[in-house]
Amino acid sequence: MSSRQPGQSQFKGIRGSFLDFVGDPFYQSEVESVRYLVDGLLIVADGKIQAFGPYSDVHSEYPEISITEYPGRLITPGFIDTHIHYPQTGMIAAYGEQLLEWLNQYTFPTEQKFADRTYAAEVAEIFLDELLRNGTTTASVFACVFPQSVDAFFEAAERRNLCMIAGKVMMDRNAPDTLCDTAESSYQETRELIKKWHGRSRLFYAVTPRFAITSTREQLRLAGQLLQEFPDVYLHTHLSENVDEVAWVKELFPDCQGYLDTYDQARLVKERAIFAHGVQLTDQEFQRLSETDAAIAFCPTSNLFLGSGLFKIEQAKSTEYPVKVGLGTDVGAGTSFSLLQTASEAYKVAQLRHQKLSPFKMMFLATLGGAKALCLDKTIGNFDIGKAADFIVLDSQATPLMAFRNSPTPSKNLKELADRVFSLIMMGDDRVIQATYILGDLAYVRPDQTS
Ligand code: GUN
Ligand code: ZN
Fold it and tell me: Which atom of ligand 1 is nearest the CA belonging to 245?
């Protein structure tokens, strides 16, 4: 807790039960990693967390402050989606295909529409509304091949003060001509976009080759060159999602050791690299991701929807070769914008592999784990003082069945809390998100709460 600054009218307080993480429950005990305040008070000033602690302690430091109270509600850091495609918002739930056919039949025709800047701007707004309705405050986002699709996205995110990572898809083969750039044009366009957007407001750029199949070796090499020129930008791509995809990559890159090596040879495998899926990774590839401090976006709804397979979360989170992991919805192959639904499917994927994913581990992946995967844990992911005040209010009584199952009073201890969190994950979705705050300001409130 820090001490009171006199006469600061922009200070505001939020009271309720708070859950966040101060460690990684995959490697530390729950008592060490979970922070739970049954009756807590969060003080926000200038969009940042100024103070946080038990209500009785913090309130005496800020006796005059105006407080918004959420009795019986659970307040957590905003959810972090480590992999999602905004141009695919309108084609969610496209029937019947696995990855490569799904791309040809549904995805590429849809992404074609984003040559139109006005259309891209409309979809960006719908997409961001949907993120906030689902309690997602930060995401790592694929735009599409057109630079104007990136401008439209970042402009919309900037207007809402959101912390977002995004980039233009680089794609110079094995896709319709109208969706292809060239190695050189993708380099130049990406360079311009980095200069325009990276580090502006709360926005960060990711160099975004779609996947090894749609990039020539030269395009991947130039992507690596961009990362050398701009060392703090991100790399965001897909990796080892589907068996047919992995076989095709082997044909296209006969002298590479495997799928990850196609990226490694181009110097793309490093800290700040985000690889979506990783369902088919070999032991050596997990080890290489660990050594290089790269991250995996675990996208269970998508991996199930496209029939890609069951991600080995316990291998990624091993003590021997730990890999940073966050959750990704991967909309539109993913079937929900909700990180709660995504965590629920992650749990079932683990069950099918005879593994257990505890409620707190899932909640960690959706918050601080995601922030760590995106190397943003210095500024978001929990309620540490000085971090951005991006948080959400969860209603564990949001439906009649949830109201019947869950007590209206706060959980008294970690055991009760784990049970409540588990019910939120298994039964919850956008309906349990009562409010979403960005930099301490209300950015979304569930319609039944507006009076
Ligand atoms: N691999 C290459 N492009 C895509 C995509 O748009 N979605 C998914 N799920 N995988 C991909
Ligand atoms: Zn994807």
Answer: 1
